[in-house]
Each structure stands twice: as C-alpha cells, then as structure tokens.
C-alpha cells in the first residue's frame, strides 16, 4: 500500500473508532460535567477515568501526584508518547442551563464552601483522553511503542503537573519522547488551531512584604516609613520593562495590589504587595523575577528597612513553547485527518498553563525544555453560533463569544468531543504509527 | 490700697472662693467622670454644667452647636472674657481602678457600641469651668465687664468649636476680647505651664481617591494603573517638605494609608490614600494642603487618570498660636496667684486642639487669628508620683508618666481641681479686674 | 510568447543592459565616492546624476527640495513608478584604503570643518539609480507608464524626503502608484533581502527644556528646583513603555541626555533633556510622543514650574512599513531575475530611514501610508569575505562585518552595482511591464 | 577697688589703647586691602601680621598650616585664650572706588589668572587681630595667662583652620581654654551681635559619579542606564529631609548639578551629581551624609550599576555652635565695654565658616565640640548709610545693604576697626582679666 493510501486508511480507521467510542465518551463527559471537583480533590473524576481506561486494557495507576491517573499501553518497541488531559474544575456557579449542569459545592483548602463548575472544559479534556485511549487501543495492531495517558489534577492552580512529576511520573512509568496536550476554545467546532514556538505565557504572582518601623505620623524620623519604600519600589519596578527587557520581548510586570496602613496619622509597620509577572521566554522570565527581587531588596536598603523583605510565590507557571518541528508533525497529521480547511493558525494567547512543566522535567525552574511538547486548540463553538457571531476570523469572533471561566461557557458538543478524540489519536500516531 | 496690696487681696479672695467651691466641684467632677459621653453626645454633661451655672446666677443657653452650653454674667461696662472648657470623652475602656471609674458604653455615629472614658480629662476642664464660674460670680463686686463661660462639645473630633461658632456663638451672645482655655497634663500638680506664640500643631487628615481604569494585569495598555499613579504621588509628595517648606519650619506630610487592588494579576480601578499634614503655621499649612492637591492632580494627569481625584477632609484643626502679649498678661496673673516657683515654660507640643477656632472667627480657614487666645497647661500628677518619676524637668519626666488617652490616665485630684479653678479665675481677672 | 518565456526574456534583457551600463555606472560611483557631500550640500552629486540622466533622455529637474533631482521618462499610459536613491554622505574620516577614497572636508551648518565620507553607501544608491535609469530607458519598448527617478538629498538628517515633498514633488512632477527604494548592507554580494510589513523604526529625538526658578541651594523654598522636576520626569517616562505601550509592541524611550546646574550649592534655572523615541508603528509612535509631552507638562505642574516646558523636535522620521502585497510583487520579480537562492528574508532592523515620507504624502505626521512603498536590501559583502565570516545566516554574520557608518565600510564592488541596478529595474517593471 | 570700678577702669584702659593703636592698624588695614591674596597664598599678609606682632613682643611663628601665623604672649599662670582672624581674599574684581582699592590679580590653583579683592573683610579681621594684640600687650600688667593670636589662611575654601590644626597648632603652641573669633557684617558700625548656640551651618558639597554601561539608545537592555539611576537617586534623596530628619531640625539637601549624556539616542556611561548639604547640628549632618551615601549605593544596586558609585567631598565645614555659657560671658564683657545699647541679638545665618574646626580639635569629623568657641559679629555700615537704609532692625535692613562677597562691599571704617579691636580685647580679658 502506498504511503498516501496508508494515511487515508488510518484517517478512516480513526474516524470509525471515534464514532464507536462516542456514546460512552459522551456519557462520561456528562457525568464529569455534572460532578465537577476542585483542584487536588479530583477523587471521583480520577476514579471514573481510571475505570474507563482499565476496562480498555490499560495498565492504570491512581493517585499519582495526589489524584492523578497514569494509564500505560506498552505495545512493542518504539517511541513513548504521552497524552495529557486535565481534570479539575473551578469555584464558579454554573449558569449554562444545561440539563446536566453542575449543582455541586465543595470546601476549599481554606475551609470555605463554594459552588463548583467545569467552566474551563477540563471535563471535555478528560473525556477526550479516555476516548483517544479507546481509539488507540482499538488500533493497536497499527502502531508500535508505548502510549502513556496522563489525567492531571489541579491545572487551574498551576500545581498538578509538577505534583505528578515530583511523584515520579517519568521514573515510575516512562519517560516520553513527546508530550501532547490540547485545550478547547471559542472557535468553530471541528476546527483545530496550531501555534509553533512561543504559545502561552509564563506567569508568576509574588507576594512581597516590605518591613518598616511604624510610629506616629508626626514623628517620621523615629520611624522607617514602609509606604515611601513601597512607592519607590513601584516606580522603580517600571524600569524593568522599560530598560532591562529587550524592547521586542513581551513582558508585563504589574503591581496589582498594594496595601499599607490603616489611617493617615499612623506610619505602618509594613506594606504588602502582589506583583504579577508575565512573559513568553522562560529564561527572560527568571531574569525578570531576579530583577524584581534585586530592586526590592535595594529599595529596602535605600529606605533603611530594619528587616529584609519577604518574597512568596503565590502562583507560578512556565511559558509554553511548542517545539517547532513537532508542532509541524502534529499539524500534518491533523491536516491528513481533518483536511487543511479545518485547521487554523492560532494566535499567541496571554493565558497560561502548567502543561509546559511536562517538557521541563530535568531543566527545573525556568531553565528550558528538554522533552518536546505540542499543545493545540480545538474549536468548541457550535456551527450555528459561529455563523451568527460578528467578525472575521478567530481573533475577532472570540471577542463576542463566551470565554472559558465564564459561568455560561459550555464547550462539550458531540462534534467537539469527536474532534478532541481524533486530534489526540492522530497526533499520537504521528509518532507511533 | 496700693496696687501691690490689691493684688495680694485678690489672690487671697480667689483662694478663699476656690476652697469654698471645692466640694461641689469635686462632686461634679466625679459625677462627670463616672458618666462620660462621646463627642456631640454630651447631653447629660451639658445639662449638669448648665444647671450648676444657672444656680450660680448665670444666664445659661443650652444646645449651642449641638450640646454646647453658654453661660453669661454681664457685670457692667468692660471687656468680654471667654473661658472655655471642653466636655467630651473617648471610646476607651477605663482601667484606672478609681472608685468612680466609668463603666459606660455608647453607640458611635457608625452604630458601633464602644466603652467610654474621660481619658483626656475634659471632665476636669468642665468642672474647673464651673468652679471658676462660682469663684468669679462670688467676686463680682471686684470686677467689671462680661464673663462668658463656654462648655464645648466634641473637641476630640475637632468639630465642637466650629459648631458653636457656626451656631452664632459670637453673634447671639458676645464677641470676646480674649479667649482663655487650659488643658491638664502629666506635670507636678499645682504647677502651670505657659508657652507664648506657636503652641500646638495644625493637623489635617485628607482622604484621597485616585481613579484609574482597571483590567487584567497582562494588558496594562488597556488600563490606567492607579497603583503606579499612587506610587508617583507618594514619591512626589516628599518634595513638599524637602523643597517647598522653608527648612527652618516644622512641617510633616505622612501618607499613613495606601490601599489599592485585591490581587497581583488584576489592575484595580482606584487607589485610596490617607494623608496627614501637621505644622505650626496656619498660612504655611494651607500652602502645604494646596501643594498636596496640586501634586496629586498633576500626577493624575501625568498618569492619564480618567477622572479627577477626590479629596475629603477627614479631620482638621488649626495651629494654636498663643498671643504673645496676652500670654504674658496671663503668666503675670498666675505668678501673682501661685508664685513664680509654680510656673514653668511649656515646651511646644506636637498635639493638636480645636481651641484655636475661637480665635479665628472671621479669618476663616487657615487665615490667622483675629481674637487673641491664651491656652495654658496645668500639672495633674500627684506630688509623690512626681518625686518618684525619673528625669529632670517636665519634658524628661513626661516620658515616664501616663499620658492623656491612656486607659490609666487619671488627672483629677483635689489639688489639680483647685489649681484649674484658680488659673481660669485669675486669668479672667487680668482683663476684668 | 508564453508568460514564462516573456519573463525569461525580460530577465535576459535586464542582464544585458546592466552589463552595458556597468562601466559608466562604476565610473560614476568612484567619482561620487571620491567627492562626498554633506546633507543638503549635494550640489556636485546632484549635477552628476542630473547630467547622466539627461544624457539618457530623461526630463530632468534640479534643485528640488534643495539639491534633489527628479528625472521623468513618460512612456505612454500606465502606472507611475518612483525609484528613489539618496545622495548624502557623513562627517566621517575615511579609512577604507580604497584608491578612490575620499579626502574631502566640508563645513557643517554650524560652521565647523569636518571630514566627509560615503560611509553609508549612498553613492552606490545614486549610481544604481542612474544605472537602472539607463537599463529602463534602453528597454522602453517593453513597458508603458511613467518612470520617475528621484535622487534625494539629506537622508542622514531625515530631512531630504520631506523637503522634496514640500517642494511639490508629487504636484509638479507625478504622483506615483508605487515607491521603490533600496539600501546596501553587509550580506553576501548578489543577494537581495525582503521584509514585508514593519521594516524600520520611527525615530524622534526631542529636546526638552524644563523651567525652574533658581537660587541658593540653602533656600529651596524660595526656588523651583528643576533638577527635582527633571528627575521625576525621567522616572515617570519609564511608565510609558512599562504601562502604556502594549507589551507585544517594540517601543523604546531613552533619555540620553540630562543636563542641569553648574555646582552643588546653586539651584539652577532650568534643566535640559534629550529624549529619543523609537518604534515600529507610526500611530503608536505618535501616541508615545503625546504621552511624553503629557507627562512632562504634568510633572512641571506638579513641581510648580513657572513656565511651560519647551519641546523641540531635533530629528524625526517615520517607521517604514513595506506594503505586504507590493513587497510580494517585488520579491517575485526579483526571484525571476536572480533565482530564489539569491533572496533572503530580511530581519527587522532597529535603524531608521526617511524613505517612508514618500509613502505618507497626504497623511502627514505619523498618520499612516497612502502610497504603497517597498524598500529592500542588497548584499554588499564580497563572496570571499562572506565565506570567511563566522556564523550562519545574515543575522549572525552581520555581527562580524563592518557596518554602515564605519570608516572602513566599502560596499561598492561591481557585483553589488550590478545587483542594485537589476533590483530597481526588475522591480519597476513589475508595475510597468 | 570695687569690682564695678575695676570694670569701668578696664573699659577706659581698652578704649585708650585702642585709640593709641588706631593709626597703625588703619595703615595695616589699607595695606592689606590694597594687596589681597587668594587662599593659601597669604605670604605677604602673613608676613605683615607677623612683623607687627613681633614688634609688639609676641613670640611669633610663621608658616603654620601653610601661610598661617601664631603669636604667643605668655604672661604667667592662667587660662589660654585664642583669638582668631582670617587673612584670605576672593577672586573678585573690586568695584568699591576706594583710593586703596585692589588692582591685584593672582593665579589660582588651576593656573587661571583672576582679579583678587578683600570682599569679605578678612583684611579687617587680621588688622583687628593685630590691634587687639597691641591693646592686650599694652595691658599685660592687668591680666594673667597665655594669649594666642592666630592669623588663619584659607577660610573661604574651608581649609585653613584644619590645616593649622594638622600642623600641630595645639601641640606645638598651646591648647586654648576658649577660642574667640568675629566677623564683620552689614549692621550699624559700632554695634556687636551675639548668638548663643547654633549660629552657622555645617555645609558639605559632595561630587558623585554614578556608573552605568552605555550604548545605543535603541538597545537599553544591553546597557545600564545611568540617567535612570540618577533620576531615582534624586527623587529618593528627597526622603531624607522629608522622613529621616526630625521635622523641627533645619537641614537642606540640594542636588545643584546633574550632568549625564551628550545626545538623545546614546545611553551614557555615567552621570555626575553635585549635592550640597546644610544643617545646624554636626551629628545630624553626619547622619545626613551617611543617608545620602546609603541611598546612592542602594539605587546603584537597584539599577544594577556595574561599579560602586564614587563620592568626593568638594568642600566641607562644620556647624558653628557658640557655647552658651561662654557667649554670655563675652556678651557681658561687651556690654561693659560698649553699653547694652550697642549690642544686638544676631539672627542665625545660613552661611558657613571653618572657625568651628578650632573647637573640634579632638572630636574629629562631625563629632562635636571639645573646646568652647564664641564667634560674634561687628557692624560695619557707616552711621549715615544705616540711617538711610529702609527697614527696622538688622534683618530687614540687611536686605538693602551690600553683602560680603559683593565687589562693592567695603566694611573698614575707623569706627569699625576700633570696635573690632575692642571686642577681641575685652572678650579675651573676660577670661584673662
């Protein structure tokens, strides 16, 4: 059989298997959507995913990195391909009106009861992971190698990927040659968007405490005024983007929170800042974080602060860099599967993911990638809604559509589930087939 | 009778009348101390003071400026002398252990129930006012003119003096030629401290809202960042004291409070500041306030703030300037009454009072004095306690003694009450006698 | 004749005509190189260019915009194509060791005598313009339309293009449908680099005077300190790039010069700044300039400056935006002429040109383009030198090669002259042919 | 003889001796005035002073601390009193029109030829020192102790006092119990002004170099921008006076000079500042200097400066603190000599002197005084000129009169010379008599 014919055959095989799996995957999706769980609380979700994959013959391990699930299908010599889906939901009260809408609540780590909703479509991701698992298990005669399905907890708090790695994901199971993942988005259902290179932002939120030495507002010389230090810190931080970051690089440093003092005539003891940093280059991101620390320490010295400032990483994730060669390999597989007309060039998003940690296993920190990663986007807006949306192209229409994290966001139609299974399966086969 | 003999006779007359009034004044003091009232709630206190002065033959009006009391004794042609005592207490839980300690609570303007205590000795001031009223009524044969006793509400919030003036104090009753007042302090009981010229600070606390236009921390160009504007405001405000205030002047500008934002990755809509300004020159104080407004408005323009900043005066009072000639006249009267050895030179205090408004009736704002004022201090520390206190002189010993606004502050011994009556009476007679 | 055959014929025709013109063009080049002239002093250069084009049958006008030359060849109905070459040299002492190296000096506008050198290769540009004029005149049977050759003065000071437009270039001669230009660079000789869209930076240098009110250093309150205002201006300007420019845009604001005062104990009357702004989007560039003015005016108000600050544009040029469709048309013409292997994708340069003014005739200021422009780059590094240079590709090798404005830069080999004639001629024929 | 009679006798004795000395002193004054010398060049002046004092029987040493002169009169057991006069002139072209006006020029340390003038009346001080030496030598029967006359070089550059101390003034000659000095001023001739305590300012001018790492204005990330660091230094320095100096203290920190860069598009390598600091408390002055260094070092760290900043003391002198007890002793001696009506209370001046170094011999730096000093002022405005001058009192009239350092300032009338001799002699006798 010619290469061309082979490709056409594989396309048809995947389509057939996807159709076969759809009903069960749709059932799983509705069940997960109805029972969302907060980050690191995905006990029920993990169990459902594990059961489904065990039933398909996968070698399944639960509780990896908390509630994560790892499912292996060792199928002879060949590369190891990791497919990743995330499982956690958000503390949002669902307003979609779906008949399987969530009415769940849960207790947060701080002991607060909140409503829970799959407002970011991670239920879709987990279901498609299981669906792709079914497709690829069904097609095991047609490929060689090791398939590693990873259902990850706690993506929303940028913790689950690292937790699984810390729990020995690559040592206990297999070290992948390629890591593949996807996310739903408000684009026409059935379409797939790719972006080579820099794709999503690194993001760190620092909490900083600046120490002064308070006292009465009328006697500043007997105090160290942390409000003045904090003000100089904020003005000084502007120089990072203005002078230290190469002008062609996209970096943002935002002091979103600055709290000090209780009333005008009392000089407070300290000031609290929260600083958010974003950028698309991990090495530069680390430099920016170092610059922030350098500046704040120096300003505290300038202001004769009696104690060193304190720095706390409140949330953090790496920039996502899609390996250029690998993303082209995926794109070609998807072109073969869906036709070029269903592919689009994804613009770079300012959002963030903890997916890149899977590519960064040995580099650590913001050191760079050592396993190639590819992350793509699947459209989840029903055809009719898409036609009615003003604007041309993804970027313009997106402004008019419900976005992830909205209480009205509902991405999980059958067409999207089918696309999400086929994208994972066909991309995996680009290495295994 | 010689002038000298006359003076000696007056000294003795005052002493005799003070002794006669003591028991009743002490009773009033204990009653007021046991039943303290918050600013503008001095209904019971005002009634007690009014009753006592009516009984002495004064022409009494209640409810002036809220709960204030005005008592007139018109006694022929001659100058008008105003004696002022304040009546309000503080939201502090008394810890003095006195047998007549307060157990009162009250509801604040914000609807919060708080304990109440005469921790600043305004009960002493009101009692001495009544006592001096008794002394001077008893001596009416020996003087000519008009005596105006003013029991003022709400000194602690810098509101009562202006409220009485706004209610027509000088139009409805009499415009004084001299305004006299006093305050207790931790100095040896029986002593009196005078300070000519600049005596207490003007103080203004401004609340300022700086408007930005919030948004996501990753998209600063679509926002106006009020945190950055606020930081530039704080650094810029430092130039007022450093560059605009003559270096020999004592002025403080403190940003005691700066609150903006809720978390690192959200640029907030506004920033809130509280700025406290203090100084000893009313005209310069007004200039400083204008400079603050000028700087904040300009920084908001520099930062393309979408709306003008908002300024609210949270508290404010004038600087107290003791008229030099009048304070010398009072000092001489007190020297004749008590002997030079019981007088001391009072150092300038960083504290503030709303007493100066009585001298500023027509000038308005920070424009200057138009009626001469004299304000002195009476020692309230029992002799034995004073001897035991380390340090030499008032300034050093003060550091070791309980200060007003402490829950342990208890100034009202008989010796102090007697001094406080005699100071007012003898000072009034320096004009009326 | 087929379209393909026609193209191949044209390629050959151009090559032939280029070879025929080479000797004369090379002679002109050596002459111009040996006699460089400063901006707006290109009298001899303009005359040489004019004579050569007149000899070719062009309708030539001299002295347009000072020393500029316009040469028209009206050749029937059809589009108007403008080819631009610049003529001015730099105040640099030549160190190339060429046998036709410059030994010229000239007097600057400020009356200073300086050495002069064609260190930026504008002699090459003028010579190629004449050469392309010869080629296209020779081929006039093969095209229809109007050819307008423009030899521009004073590119180095960003003045010549606008001077020619102000002198009625488009009104007196012809309004082009397309404006074409080129620049030499340190890339392999014979190659041509194209860059669609944003290609070179807008650049403005502002001179700013901030007014204070000087006095003795010990009496700041009697002065307005311009040093403090200037310092706040500099810190405040950092917020433009940090907060007002979208993070994905490349903009730089540099205060390269700040001079105030003569000695420590005298507060000066004013401060002088020079601010350089660069960016690739003309509309955004204008916004940045407005932001600078807004900030400086506001800081002067904050600092109670007695007079408005003064702003002077010292140098300024627009960003160069290569019209995407037109650059593709040129690229295809060049591919046909030279083969794809001699083309390269030019990276975006931080340098600036005043060429874009020709595309901006009616828009004015930084308003945008109204006539499409294409500007490309021709390699000028001899083959052997190129092979010896370390690095892969243009960007890496460029770091090791002499750059324009170096006293050692010598781009004008025969191979480069031939390429520079053929690029202009073939690009022009993409519209005229 | 009664104490009162003794005093009256001494007054008369001094007056007589002053009259006797006047002609020679006036001659010396005119000679010195006509031949002024720059700091550390007072060779002729020193010789003239030395000769005159040798002729009076003093034990004279020349060349102390460069050109200084020390003259001792050991007259039995008793205290040692030092009288100081300074000798140097200024690089000013005299415009007084006096018949003995200077026409001298001299070469500065930098090799520049400048006109020279006694525009600060140091000729008067030296002459009065010699005159007082004559008076006290003549009266030697009436006192016991050691008289040390010190003619000091280089007061104008704040160097001569320390130079003499460094040359062993107190070790080689005598350590004084009291140091006395005086300065002429625009007040009514014949009057003497005293000021207890803080009298003249400490003053330091620092030169500071801030190191950056320059480069092209378009590539800030490859540079360290010293302009931005300098701007943050200036804004930060404002917090010293605003927050670190007690508000009741008089301190000024002025950045009078800030130079960086040559043109807008080049980021310079460094920035140069000159910072002038003034204050009346030596210990606080030292703290302020330390704060400046702390802030600049920290800001250089914040701005990642590649090298530590450099600090140079350009000029410096201590604050003058007149010992309270000693100034009262002098004042009483002057009252006895001249009558109370010729004394006035001198207001504090913002000017500076290096006289205080003589009181600071062992303390070093800004450590405080260890030998009591008294420095007073003598009026030098002729009676008629004084009457014609508008204003009341010294402070008001001073604004209308020529001040020291003016080319028109001419203080040396006979009445002033007589006063200046008598002030020194009578003050010395307050310790020796």
TrEMBL record, chains A, B, C, D:
Keywords: Hydrolase, Manganese, Metal-binding
GO molecular function, one term: hippurate hydrolase activity
Any Gene Ontology biological process: diaminopimelate biosynthetic process
SUPFAM superfamilies the record matches: Bacterial exopeptidase dimerisation domain, Zn-dependent exopeptidases
Domain of life assignment: Bacteria
Cofactor: how bound: The Mn(2+) ion enhances activity.
Signal peptide limits: none
Enzymatic class: hydrolase
Pfam families on file: M20_dimer, Peptidase_M20
EC numbers: 3.5.1.32
Domain Peptidase M20 dimerisation, first and last residues per copy: 207-301
Amino-acid positions noted as binding Mn(2+) in the UniProt annotation, renumbered to this chain: 120, 122, 156, 183
Cofactors: Mn(2+)
PANTHER family referenced in this protein's UniProt entry, alphabetically: METALLOPEPTIDASE, PUTATIVE (AFU_ORTHOLOGUE AFUA_6G09600)-RELATED, PEPTIDASE M20 FAMILY MEMBER
Stated name of the protein: Hippurate hydrolase
Species in which this protein is naturally found: Halomonas organivorans
């Amino acid at each position: 059989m010619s290469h061309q014919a082979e490709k056409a055959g594989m396309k048809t095989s995947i389509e057939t298997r996807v159709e076969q799996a759809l009903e069960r995957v749709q059932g799983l999706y509705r069940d997960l959507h109805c029972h969302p769980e907060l980050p690191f609380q995905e006990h029920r979700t993990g169990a459902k995913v594990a059961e489904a994959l065990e039933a398909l013959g996968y070698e399944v391990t639960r509780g990896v990195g908390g509630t994560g699930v790892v499912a292996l299908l060792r199928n002879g010599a060949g590369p190891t391909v990791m497919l990743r889906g995330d499982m956690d939901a958000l503390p949002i009260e669902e307003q979609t009106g779906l008949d399987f809408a969530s009415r769940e609540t849960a207790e947060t780590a701080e002991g607060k009861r909140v409503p829970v909703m799959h407002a970011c479509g991670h239920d879709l991701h987990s279901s498609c992971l299981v669906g792709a698992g079914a497709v690829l298990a069904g097609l095991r005669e047609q490929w060689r190698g090791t398939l590693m399905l990873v259902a990850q907890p706690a993506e929303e708090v940028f913790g689950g990927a690292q937790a699984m790695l810390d729990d020995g994901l690559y040592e206990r199971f297999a070290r992948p040659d390629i890591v593949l993942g996807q996310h739903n988005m408000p684009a026409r259902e059935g379409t797939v968007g790719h972006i080579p290179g820099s794709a999503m932002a690194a993001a760190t939120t620092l909490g900083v405490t600046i120490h002064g030495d308070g006292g009465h507002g009328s006697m500043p010389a007997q105090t160290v005024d942390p409000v003045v230090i904090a003000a100089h810190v904020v003005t000084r931080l502007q120089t990072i983007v203005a002078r230290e970051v190469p002008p062609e690089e996209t970096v943002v440093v935002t002091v979103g929170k600055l709290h000090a003092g209780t009333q005008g005539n009392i000089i407070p003891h300290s000031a609290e800042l929260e600083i958010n940093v974003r950028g698309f280059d991990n090495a530069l991101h680390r430099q920016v974080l170092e610059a922030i620390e350098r500046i704040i320490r120096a300003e505290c010295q300038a202001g004769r602060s009696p104690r060193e400032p304190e720095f706390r990483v409140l949330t953090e994730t790496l920039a996502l860099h899609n390996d250029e060669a690998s993303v082209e390999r995926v794109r070609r597989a998807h072109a073969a599967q869906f036709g070029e007309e269903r592919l689009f060039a994804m613009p770079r998003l300012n959002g963030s993911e903890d997916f890149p940690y899977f590519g960064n296993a040995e580099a650590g920190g913001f050191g760079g990638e050592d396993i190639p990663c590819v992350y793509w986007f699947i459209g989840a807006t029903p055809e009719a809604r898409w036609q009615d949306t003003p604007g041309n192209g993804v970027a313009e229409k997106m402004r008019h559509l419900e976005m992830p994290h909205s209480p009205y966001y509902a991405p999980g139609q059958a067409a999207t589930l089918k696309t999400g299974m086929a994208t994972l399966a066909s991309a995996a086969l680009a290495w295994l087939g």
